[in-house]
Amino acid sequence: MKLKKIVLTGAAGRLGSYLREPLTALCDELVSTDLEDVGTCYPGERFMKADLASFDDMMAVIEGATMVIHMGAFVDEGPFEQLLGPNFIGSYNVWEAAYRTGARRVVYASSIHAVGMYDKNVCLDTEMPHRPDTFYGLAKCFSEDLGRMYWEKRGLESVHMRILSCASVNNPRSLGSYLSYDDLIQLVTRCIDTPVTGWAVVYGVSDNDRSPVDNTKAAFLGYRPKDNAEDFAQAVFAEMEAPLDPLDKTHMCHGGPFASVDLGNSGLAGLNVVDDRKKT
Ligand SMILES: NC(=O)c1ccc[n+]([C@@H]2O[C@H](COP(=O)([O-])OP(=O)(O)OC[C@H]3O[C@@H](n4cnc5c(N)ncnc54)[C@H](O)[C@@H]3O)[C@@H](O)[C@H]2O)c1
Q1: Residue 133 — very low, low, confident or very high, per pLDDT cuts 50/70/90?
Q2: 20 to 30 A Cα–Cα from 4, which one of 192, 193, 205, 272?
Q3: In the beta sheet, which residues pair with residue 27?
Q4: What is the Cα–Cα distance from 216 to 221, expressed in whole angstroms?
Q5: pLDDT the model gives residue 272
Q6: How many CB atoms lie within 10 A of CB 96?
Q7: Could you report the per-residue pLDDT of 72-126, keeping only the tens digit for each?
Q8: Cβ neighbours, 10 Å, residue 28
């Protein structure tokens, strides 16, 4: 069954660029929104420029939508004040506007950084208490709790995809944390087409041999990833110049470099993320 209207926030971003086209197949109208332009729209897609930090903007964009796929955010660690508008207030605006306009569900791009301070040798399931590694991770915890409260008090469903690393495999950490774009698309599709979800958490990770997380309790979503970072393991190990220090949180914690940076400092600076966003 096709939905009437889906809203995609963060549509101009890297992950949004891969989601836009497949999302048009699931609804009569996809409204893609961002502060940045998305370029040429796909058939069935309309772009609306809007600021997550503006409640009026979110009301205008979300009006009439059945579901909101909320990917927009400031995507790095930074000073709290930099994250407050897009990541904290932005989430409140999305949930409150979705509730007021009668939307059914929010599908949210949460992150491993909500639980980034756990040691890597602890396998994380979806019910582990939050242990954010940064203000960025704290905003993901806030949004997950916000979603739970809106479900329990107001009946607005939400699925929180704790994405690990949706980026090419070019370091030892990503052998466990890799999420391919095809698996991301399958995950978002399952979060939309699962008939009832209530409030749920699921890890966004491919079928990696070295995956450090456990999605058993989210099995009802039917997410069955197909890709495996092990295909890149020999190449990654060949590039390693020295053994990794197990006392360095960058290597020993789930959050990688976000676990070891001082609060307010970039975590992305420690990752070699290639901007390979899909062009329209
Ligand atoms: N890429 C990953 O591996 C990864 C991992 C975990 C979680 N996530 C989450 O997935 C989502 C998408 O990540 P991405 O890698 O595509 O990041 P991205 O930076 O490429 O995209 C984020 C988008 O949000 C938009 N945005 C920022 N502030 C805004 C505002 N005030 N109003 C409107 N739009 C605003 C930006 O313009 C950008 O287009 C984010 O929520 C991120 O936290 C990504």
Answers
A1: very high
A2: 205
A3: 3
A4: 10
A5: 87
A6: 18
A7: 999 999 999 999 999 999 999 999 999 999 999 999 999 999 999 999 999 999 9
A8: 12
Helix (H, G, I), strand (E, B) or coil at 207: coil
Q: What's residue 26's pLDDT? A: 98
Separation of CA 274 and ligand 1 centre (Å): 14
**Known active-site residue 108:** no
The full set of domain ranges for the chain reads: 3-270
pTM of the full structure: 0.98
CATH, domain 3-270, list 3.40.50.720, 3.30.420.40, 3.20.20.450, 3.40.1190.20: 3.40.50.720
Q: How far apart are CA 101 and CA 92, in angstroms?
A: 14
3-state secondary structure (DSSP) of residue 185: helix
Instruction: Return the best residue to mutate from 15, 49, 106, 179 for the ligand 1 pocket (most ligand atoms within 8 A of CB).
Output: 15
Q: How far is the CA of 74 from the centre of ligand 1 (A)?
A: 6
Task: Say which of 136, 150, 181, 223 is annotated catalytic.
Answer: 136
